[in-house]
Amino acid sequence: MLRSVLLNLSTAKWSRRLATESSLARRVASRFVAGETLPDAIRAIRELNARQVTATLDHLGESVVMADDAVRATEDYLGLLEEISKADLCANASLKLSQLGQQLSLDLCAVNLRKILDRAKQKGIFVRIDMEDSTCVDPTLGLYEQMRALGYDNVGVVIQAYLYRSQQDVEKLLSEGTRVRLCKGAYKEPAEIAFPNKRDVDKNYLALAKRLLETSQAARLPADPRRCIPPLAAIATHDERIIRAVAQYAREHNIARDQFEFQMLYGIRRDLQETLAAQGHAVRVYVPYGTEWYPYFMRRLAERPANLWFFISNFIRR
Ligand code: FDA
Questions:
Q1: How far is ligand 1, taken at its centre, from the CA of residue 264, in Å?
Q2: pLDDT (average), residues 244-262
Q3: 308-317 long-range contacts, Cβ below 8 Å, gap at least 24?
Q4: Which of 34, 97, 264, 299 has the fewest CB within 10 Å, making it most exposed?
């Protein structure tokens, strides 16, 4: 119920205005966002890299409705790739196609994406296409396939375990050698297309994670000694029970540690990130930055009601 309300608010203009004008909301959001500028994010990534944790950098923004904004977002990504390369960081880029104009024109979006993939390729950087709500899944996978057909191999996608269709999508993507990030799914979806119960989402997550690991091990893509390029299997969750089960499955099936990585979000379970890295697991942190933090922040509140109580208690204290 609360999750639903917060996810509805994440797309409401009035609450976005209220939140972005509130210094308290900005302060609470800063727990999940590395800062408003690229130098802030670069600093955060340097700290992660110093702890043997790699990163994926996201310039916040989504659902753009003006072509100029999509072009500007593309330019921002080109700058971000330059900075990753110049600073010699172990980092990928993560982006949302709705930021590049997906909802305006698929052609415009494809042109923008190609510019980014070309620059990323020159710099040896991998680009992950985030997955947005269910209306975006077919167009996103379609554009991904288009890019692969054009010869780009420095790109991968995200699959959401809460969708019934994901098992089929995973099988197809794996048969094409796609690097997949598996997450549970952060949007509000109806029961006709997504598991309504968390227990079923978790069960599907673990089953899909095992498929990713098995396939990654069988494909044995050459390991990247610096771990800058992600392996085929990226296990994106903070769920300790699932993480333990995945690590155990890997041990029992002799799946090498360079064939999968754990991914977590900036500001969430840093203790777990450090423990896994200290155990020799590959760990990557998703580092968002920028001024367009509102919908991202609301999805983080929706995931964990305790975050909301933290926000409210700060508000009452003030
Ligand atoms: P779950 O929600 O069960 O949480 C498990 C535990 O993790 C909680 O008990 C708590 O301890 C901790 N936790 C989880 N969320 C927290 C929060 N917000 N604040 C504090 N603690 C929290 N989604 C999507 O739809 N498309 C995408 O492209 C991506 N991309 C992506 C990248 C990466 C690297 C990650 C880690 C996640 C995503 N997601 C995503 C988000 C994902 O779908 C999911 O909503 C969140 O990861 C929360 O789910 P968990 O798997 O952590 O499990």
A1: 7
A2: 96
A3: 308/2, 308/6, 310/28, 311/24, 311/25, 311/28, 314/24, 314/27, 314/28, 315/24
A4: 299
